[in-house]
Structure formats: C-alpha cells, structure tokens
Design brief:
The protein is α+β, with helices and mostly antiparallel strands. It contains eleven helices and eleven strands. It is 40% helix and 16% strand. The strands form three sheets. It has a seven-stranded antiparallel beta sheet with strand order 1-5-9-10-11-4-3. A two-stranded parallel sheet has the order 2-6. Strands 7-8 form a two-stranded antiparallel sheet.
Length: 420
C-alpha cells in the first residue's frame, strides 16, 4: 500500500515537472519570438544584408560615432545618441547576395578592398598598367603638333562640357551611355514613363547616370530579382539615415557618413522640350574653333623656336620641363602686349542669345549634336521606395553609390550611379 502511494506521488511529480517544463519551453519560445520581433521592428522589414560573416551591429565601431551622440549617452559608453532606432554599420567590402541568374542587366563584378592599403596597392597597379598601355601616345611638349591634332584635343576637352549642358536623356540614345554595372543591357520594350540621364565627370564635378522606367509588377519582377542578386544591402529609403558606412576594416568611425549622405536624394525627370541651342550657336560664332586652332598652333611653334635656341647637355627632365614653362610664360606675355586692347564692356547691355522655336531648336541639335537633348527637372525620391545597393563608398564630399530604387507597388524602378 505504501509502495503504491509512493509510486502515485512520483507519477504525479513527474507529470507536474513535465507540465512545468512544457510551459517553460512554450514561454521561452514566446519570449524568443518576441525578442526576434523586437529586433526586426527597429528597421523596416526590407532591411537585409547578405554577408553571414559581417557584423552590422559592431559595438566598437558604433561607439566611435560622435556626430549624433549626446554627451550624456557618451558618458555611459553606449554611443548610440538619442536616436529612435539603433544604428547599423555597412561596408563596401561586404559580400553581395549572389543567389540568382543575371541575364537582363550588366554584371556587377566590382573589386572590393578590406583596407585602404589594399585599395592603394590596386590603384597603383592599375595606373601602371594604364601608363604601359598608353606608352608613346601622350602629348609631347617638345614636339610641334599639327593643326589636326590641336583641333582633336580642343574638341576632346570641351566634349564633357557639351554633355553636361546637353545631357544624354533621350531613350533612343541609351546605347551612347557608358556601360554601367547592374544597369539593364537595353531598355525593355514594355517600358513606360522612361527617364534617362547621363552626364560625365568634369574637373572637380561628379557624374550621375540614371535609367528609370515603369511596367507591371510581373514585367519588372525579373529586373528586381536581378537587383537583389547584385545587392550588398537592401533597405527602405526611410532607414538610410540610421545606417553608417565603414569604408575599410581600419576606418575611424568618428565622423562616418550615413548611407543617406552617399545616395542621391532626388531623381531626374525629363521634359518634352529640348534644351535651347542659342548659347551653343552664339559661341560657335564668337569663338570659332578654327581661330583657336590657329592661335595655339602659332603659340606652340613660337615657344618651341625660342626653347630650342638653348641646348643643355645632361639636363634633367624636371629642369627641362621648368625651362619650357618659363619660356612659354615669357612668349605668352610678349604676345599679350601685341594684342589690341579690348573694349571695356562694363555697363553695356549683354548681348542676348538667339531664341529658336522648338522645331528650329531640334533641327539645330541634330545638326550640331547629332542627337536630341531635353530639358530636365528633379523630384524627391519617395521615402517608401526600397533601395537595392550594389556598391557604395566615398564620403559626403565625394559620394559614390550604385544601385536601384523600387516603388512599394513594384511597378517602377530607378537605376542610379552617382560619383561625386
């Protein structure tokens, strides 16, 4: 009887423990689920990185960020500042998604570097290869150029200016745009509401290339899928200010930039009217290229005549170059004295540029540019667009971003490449 009572007690205890254990497991599961939900809720559900070895919550790097931190929070050593959302850190050297087939867009095989030293080493190697490839093709200061060569150099210098003032933005001219990684190989036949823009870098100015078009979600799905395959980061535009960029593993994050700083904030909208050609035509009249060619040809030959009067055995390349520059400055000063005095035009009304009708303007563009270039405007990129980032880097002064932005309805896509 006693044995039977003990057995019943042990069975009851076992059942009680099993019930408690089950409840505990259930509660742990609920707690784990809640924790995961809380971790996800701080960023929009679109946020994704694809490198399994990359830590986008690197506390050491986050604590270095001071631009938006408060003194009180810094004293605690947290370093997050008074943000509504925890910060994230992403880097150009992260692995891209890579899962999927690429057919419709240009391949994105851009090398990435974990340290600045690696980047500098690769840049030096690339520069040496460029010099070797172009050996003997550079302009020799000490040899007279023909007028044809001078004309070619002038046209090459002013070509970027022409492309800035008269950008390539006619969809029919997409083949004239340089091949950009991740961009479509061609504009699809179903595309509507197309907005193309391309301008090259010039001197200290940056470049910007954009291809935007719409379609049904089913039509755009293959393009969005390929964009995700090429992406290192997928993120809602509204979350860009909460994600900081660490360009290299050894970068100091104290004054790091956010993704929002590096990405374009607006998109180019192409209008139906063409860019006025009045200024272009007037410049041709006022500054004919033939006149410039003749002046440069005469100047260079006069400089070389004076320069070659002196021969110095064993003269170093640096000394020879310095002597050439000094000779050129002296000859230019002498020529300027002989030039007729220009009339002081201060206070005189500036001559206006010719004004043409739209039909005349298009005819002139085809005559001189051999294409059409349209007026443009810009509109803010909506916050609910999803950004697929193929590559990024630089800083606020020289930003770089390559990727695509997709509307929430997935019926419009904007490819962009910005280099500051």
């Amino acid at each position: 009887m006693i044995k039977k009572s003990i057995a019943l007690c042990m069975l009851s205890l076992a059942l009680s423990c099993q019930s408690s254990l089950a409840a505990s497991v259930e509660n742990q599961g609920q707690t784990s689920s809640v924790t995961l939900d809380l971790q996800k809720s701080d960023m929009k559900v679109e946020y994704q990185i694809f490198d399994p070895l990359y830590n986008d919550r690197d506390e050491k790097a986050l604590k270095q960020i001071t631009r938006y931190n408060t003194i009180e929070i810094n004293k605690q050593g947290i370093g997050y500042g008074n943000r509504d959302k925890p910060l994230r850190i992403v880097s150009p050297y992260m692995r891209k998604n890579g899962h999927g087939e690429i057919k419709l867009t240009n391949p994105v095989n851009i090398p990435s570097y974990r340290t600045r030293a690696d980047k500098n080493k690769a840049s030096d190697k690339e520069f040496k290869a460029f010099l070797e490839k172009n050996k003997g093709k550079s302009y020799d200061l000490y040899t007279a150029r023909t007028k044809e060569e001078i004309k070619e150099s002038i046209e090459a210098f002013f070509k970027p200016i022409e492309l800035i003032e008269y950008p390539i933005n006619n969809p029919k001219d997409y083949k004239l745009v340089a091949t950009i990684p991740g961009f479509p190989k061609q504009i699809p036949s179903f595309a509507k509401n197309i907005h193309l823009h391309s301008n090259p870098p010039f001197l200290q100015g940056g470049s910007y290339v954009q291809l935007a078009f719409g379609g049904t979600p089913d039509q755009l799905k293959p393009y969005i899928d390929e964009a995700k395959t090429d992406s290192k980061v997928v993120i809602s535009k509204s979350d860009l200010s909460n994600v900081y960029v660490k360009n290299y593993v050894d970068s100091n994050m104290e004054y790091a930039d956010t993704l929002k700083t590096l990405l374009p904030t607006s998109i180019v909208v192409v209008k139906k009217t063409t860019v006025p050609m009045g200024k272009y035509v007037q410049n041709l009249v006022d500054n004919p290229i033939e006149k410039s060619v003749d002046e440069i040809y005469e100047l260079e030959n006069q400089v070389l005549t004076e320069f070659n009067k002196i021969k110095i055995d064993g003269e170093s390349s640096d000394a020879k170059y310095k002597r050439y520059i000094e000779t050129r400055k002296r000859v230019e000063a002498e020529r300027d004295i002989l030039k007729p005095k220009q009339m002081d035009t201060v206070g005189l009304d500036k001559k206006g540029y010719p004004i043409y009708t739209e039909s005349e303007n298009r005819k002139l563009q085809k005559q001189y540019l051999h294409r059409l270039s349209f007026n443009e405007d810009s509109v803010k990129l909506p916050d609910d667009y999803v950004i697929y980032l193929f590559d990024f880097g630089g800083n606020w002064n020289h930003p770089y971003a390559l990727g695509a932005a997709v509307s929430p309805e997935k019926n419009y896509i904007i490819y962009f490449c910005q280099r500051g």
